[in-house]
């Protein structure tokens, strides 16, 4: 698949680059994508939810009223769930939501997600760039030049670039990651994927095996 390389002004540089069919041109496996996205979201859950049950409530243990003669139901403890401030019946307890997938399945999912974006023509290849200092304004200008200022976008860098990363942090609609941090969820969640030239070698070498 041949794609034109753009500069940060959104203009074609006159160069074209071939995207590997082994990564960007496979038959998408939708179930693999589903499993990988499901795992990513599950692993974000902390699982620290907890409610106190009857035995954990701090309160008096005395019998709050006599057993008979009141005309109402028996009551032995103020900690009972039927009273305000009592314990909760079958309340939530801490739980580990972590899921595991094989490395090969995760690669299939990422190849499938990238192929779907390529099929939708939602992948942009951008020549490598840098800023002299972190600047949200300059990064916003890049988004406007590429026509992505009103869309969710994912920029994939080849190497760690602190200035570009810091420039994007205040923009909710855009995210910057290294090629090694690329996940199926982030690919699917973005409307457009912007691949810097330096990231292609890492992506293709990691996912083509």
TrEMBL record:
Signal sequence annotation: none
Keyword Ribonucleoprotein in annotation: yes
Record-level GO cellular component terms: ribonucleoprotein complex; ribosome
Region: Disordered, residue numbers: 45-75
Keyword tags: Ribonucleoprotein, Ribosomal protein, RNA-binding, rRNA-binding
UniProt xrefs under InterPro entries: Ribosomal_uL4 (IPR002136), Ribosomal_uL4-like (IPR013005), Ribosomal_uL4_dom_sf (IPR023574)
GO MF annotation terms: rRNA binding; structural constituent of ribosome
Gene3D superfamilies assigned to the protein according to its UniProt record, in alphabetical order: 3.40.1370.10
GO BP, sorted A to Z: translation
Classification via SUPFAM superfamilies: Ribosomal protein L4
Sequence similarity: Belongs to the universal ribosomal protein uL4 family.
Function (record text): Forms part of the polypeptide exit tunnel.
Subunit details: Part of the 50S ribosomal subunit.
PANTHER family listed in its UniProt record: 50S RIBOSOMAL PROTEIN L4 (PTHR10746), LARGE RIBOSOMAL SUBUNIT PROTEIN UL4M (PTHR10746:SF6)
Entry protein name: Large ribosomal subunit protein uL4
The species this protein was found in: Pustulibacterium marinum
Classification lineage: Bacteria, Pseudomonadati, Bacteroidota, Flavobacteriia, Flavobacteriales
């Amino acid at each position: 698949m041949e794609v034109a390389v753009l500069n940060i002004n959104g203009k074609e540089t006159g160069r074209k680059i071939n995207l590997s069919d082994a990564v960007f041109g496979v038959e998408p496996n939708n179930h693999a994508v589903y499993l990988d996205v499901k795992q990513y979201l599950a692993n974000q859950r902390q699982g620290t939810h907890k409610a106190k049950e009857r035995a954990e409530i701090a309160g008096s243990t005395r019998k709050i009223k006599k057993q008979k003669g009141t005309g109402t139901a028996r009551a032995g403890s103020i900690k009972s769930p039927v009273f305000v401030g009592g314990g909760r019946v079958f309340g939530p307890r801490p739980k580990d939501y972590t899921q595991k997938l094989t490395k090969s399945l995760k690669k299939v999912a990422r190849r499938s997600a990238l192929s779907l974006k390529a099929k939708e023509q939602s992948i942009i290849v951008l020549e490598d760039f840098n800023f002299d200092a972190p600047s949200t304004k300059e990064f916003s200008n890049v988004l406007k030049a590429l026509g992505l200022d009103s869309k969710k976008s994912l920029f994939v860098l080849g190497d760690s670039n602190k200035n570009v990363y810091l420039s994007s942090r205040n923009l909710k609609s855009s995210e910057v990651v290294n090629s090694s941090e690329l996940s199926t969820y982030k690919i699917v969640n973005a409307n457009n994927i912007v691949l810097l030239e330096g990231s292609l070698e890492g992506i293709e070498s990691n996912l083509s095996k």
